[in-house]
Amino acid sequence: MSDVMSKQGKIMQICSHIILAAMSVMAVVPFWLLIAASFSDTNYAVAEGYQFFPEVLSLDAYEYILRQWAQIGRAYLVTIVVTVAGTAASLIIVSMLAYGLAQEKLPGGKVIFALILITMLFNGGIVPQYMIYNNFFHLKNTIFGLIIPNLLLNGFTVVLVRNYFRSSIPGELSEAMRIDGAGTFYIYRHLILPLSKPILATIGLMEAVSYWNDWNNGLYYITDSNLYSMQQLLNEINNNVNFLANNSSMLGGVDPGALPTATMRLAIAVIAILPVLAVYPFFQKYFAKGITMGAVKG
Amino acid sequence: MRKQFKKAAAVLLCTATALSVLAGCSTQTEPEQSGSEKENTSETDHIVVTYLTLGQTPADLQEVQDALNERSVKDIGVEVEFKPVSAYDAMSQFTTWLATGERYDLMMPLLQDLNTYKEQGLIQPLTDLIAENAPYIQQMTDEGWTYASNNTMDGEIWSVMAVPNVTGSGGGFVVKKQYVDETDWAYDENKVYTLDELGELFAAIKENHPDMYPCGQTGATASYGYVGMFDAMGGDQATGVLMDTESTEIVNLYETDEYRDYLQHMRDWNLAGYIYPDAAVTDSSQEELVDSGVAAGYFMVSAPVQADDSEYMIRLTEVFQPTQAMGGWVVPNTAEEPEAAVRFLNYVWENPDIANLIQWGIEGEHYVVLDEEKNLIGFPEGKDATNSGYYNTLGLWGDTREVYVWSESQSQEKNDAYTEEAMNNPMKDIGVLYSPSAEASTKIAAITAVVEQYEPSLETGSVDLDQYYEEFINALKAAGVDDVIAEKQEQLDAFLKGK
Questions:
Q1: ipTM tops 0.85
Q2: CB-CB: which of B89, B294, B306 is closest to A219?
Q3: Are strands B213-215 and B295-299 parallel, antiparallel or unpaired?
Q4: pTM reported for the whole predicted model
Q5: Which of B393, B424, B405 is nearest to B318 (CA)?
Q6: CA distance B298 to B274
């Protein structure tokens, strides 16, 4: 009996290793190709296509980045500021809102919760949204245009955090504090927040990554290249290079040579993903823990 | 407890203040900015103008704008505020901006369909505005210049385009001189070559450079417009064309013998190894292919500006004058100072030095004049393409024949000769633009989708012609191409009758 079990277990082991190995290869290969291509010589890359092991190496693309650091460094800074400020603001708002909603006795709590659920299912559409943010809030071409729309608050994270507060932090603890004379905010600050580090780290990472990778807000709300984020800069360079290539017969006088080549664009992409790759491992330990803890109990 | 109450009160107060600020915004009819600036400068009109970039706002744009305002406020009482936006974003965003009421006094929908703007009521007719505020543009229009009047729809002018430095079109092939000079293939600037003769050149180049693909055709840029001669009455080439300057019959370009013959050549050349194997799908531009030594040249409009000093322009058709519907500067309905906007256009079109200022920046700082006669400029000492604060801008302003150029190959002499040749060989449909009915518009969307599906692989010779060509034509017919062609023919007939 036990022999059979272990045999089955072994087969299981081997199969899952093969499957997982295949999946990791699929995840790693594009990154490797990206990095290898960014280090290959432009002419070689055009002539031979992108190779996993380029024969003609060149640092031109990275030299270009250094030359253009005024623009690229600025975009980097914008991305960092937006990611840090946006994630921090988002965590504060989400945790406070979720804490309120986690109170069983909150008057109208169900209505508020329903309203939040509705935003997960429906939204106003892009044109009304653009109108509101642009005409009433005047977010266009300000840093807030990158922070507030779409990313600052989403219903899903509120629900996750609320459920975590309800299921993983015993109500008795806050009751005990209340009896000792602690107010609501004191309890939130000194009991709830310290106990919910895993879930906050999890959604914090999710939000940080979506801020880091976002180019949609930039597309709609930023036209001034001084406020471009890294991803938007990359997107703009790509699109405009193609635009120019496809319409060069009608746009005389422009010097296509002054625009970045394919390998330069790949190098910018490498620079843009580096910080995320570097930070990810440190948060990973919280990741799985946080999600499952918040997910049980509706 | 008390302390906490205070904190809570503070939060509430903040929220209330924030809300009242927002409420204040929403009741305001005008954006604050323009309101306050108007008060400050009661005598000068402030206009908001789009500034198209290639993704990077020039570092010295503010400086150029200040230098411009210094002159324009004094001369015509107009103060300009440039709003930079990349040319690619402009394609998708302008209509949203205008539909949501954002203020712009002048806008440049580059390479976009003005008909859409007009139909949606986003732009103003300019005929009267020009007559009252733009004497120079009016005078040139009266003299027969078409840079304003060629955007006439429903009897009204809707936009003013930059005066092109060269007019006319024709098929051509740009090729690096070195590859041609190595062979004994005879090049003659003014001779019109056939595709077979071009094929002989490819064969000769391929023999000298077996690793090279002489014909730098790519799927993204392939167009019969660079090879053959036709005119689409200001519409898409898929919606029916005139095949030569004598013709008054709209036909389906893709069904013509000329087009079939072109595809046959492409297929033969592809099989012979003259075309880059990944041509249909590559995202490298044709210039990149040539610069990296993969290709020797590419198909391009035969205007002299398209070839630089290291290239020959091989003509594949005679030079002719097509209809032009290039778009141009429009005055949106959200403009607050339309008169000042048109006055500013007039000012730039009349004064080449103002057009130069907007396009190339400040003399001595961003460029120096090398040859006054040839209008030739270069970088000042210590500056180049990578560190200049104002370079590589789009030429969208004024009379581009008078605007400086960076290379002798773009000299106005050659352009004028080409223009004259074209002017003597006009298409019959000049003066009328195809304006599709709602029903036809839907069909056109389907037709262009079919073209996008088949054109890149057919025109790079990547697929078997016998099978896919027929499929392509049938798909076009199924999408309703014949109805669209009939409608276009009707509009052309009506125009020719009234002439």
A1: no
A2: B89
A3: parallel
A4: 0.76
A5: B424
A6: 12
